[in-house]
Specification:
five-stranded antiparallel beta sheet, 181 residues
């Protein structure tokens, strides 16, 4: 008798756990639906100008760098050489990390990721609403980590820059020779 009760109890507990997982899955799908829709719309090149562009909003929370990397991977895969994709993912991740770490923005704020592929050049821009702080390479902290991001951008990007109009916009460009617009 106690075996039947524990078996039934385990089945009910598993049903509850499955229901919770399904709810979480639906919530994640809902959270990412806008980004997926933007990515799907952006996959079609603009034939008239020869420019292929993606713009996406990212929540400014701890998942923002991973979300930016995933968006770049999905959008650029098959359109740029793998080395270009890897560099773009790394540098975008660094810029997004700086955006959520340094400016005075909250997790409720959103970042804007803009990616443009045109005539063999890839431009990535990260915009945040922060207006304070200096955007400059700092001495890397080899003991505790940190301070490497803009050094990497400086090493790997063809060029990069900062604009402080309406928040902070940090961008970089890389040579995307072999890209298919």
């Amino acid at each position: 008798m106690s075996t039947d009760v524990s078996f039934q109890q385990r089945c009910q507990e598993q049903e509850i756990a499955i229901a919770r997982l399904m709810e979480e899955c639906q919530a994640l799908r809902g959270e990412n639906a806008d980004l997926h829709a933007q990515l799907e719309m952006a996959r079609d090149p603009v034939a008239v100008t020869g420019v292929n562009r993606l713009e996406a909003s990212l929540p400014a929370g701890p998942a923002a760098p991973a979300t930016a990397r995933a968006a770049l991977t999905r959008w650029l895969s098959g359109h740029v050489p793998i080395e270009v994709l890897e560099d773009a993912r790394l540098l975008a991740s660094e810029l997004v990390t700086n955006s959520i770490r340094h400016p005075d923005i909250t997790e409720e704020a959103s970042l804007r990721l803009a990616v443009q592929l045109s005539k063999g050049a890839l431009r990535v821009e990260v915009r945040d609403p922060g207006i304070d702080g200096v955007v400059a390479a700092r001495e890397p902290d080899r003991e505790n980590g940190g301070g490497f991001g803009l050094h990497l951008v400086d090493m790997l990007a063809t060029r990069w820059g900062v604009s402080r109009a309406d928040g902070t916009h940090v961008w970089f460009e890389v040579d995307a020779a072999g890209a298919t617009d």
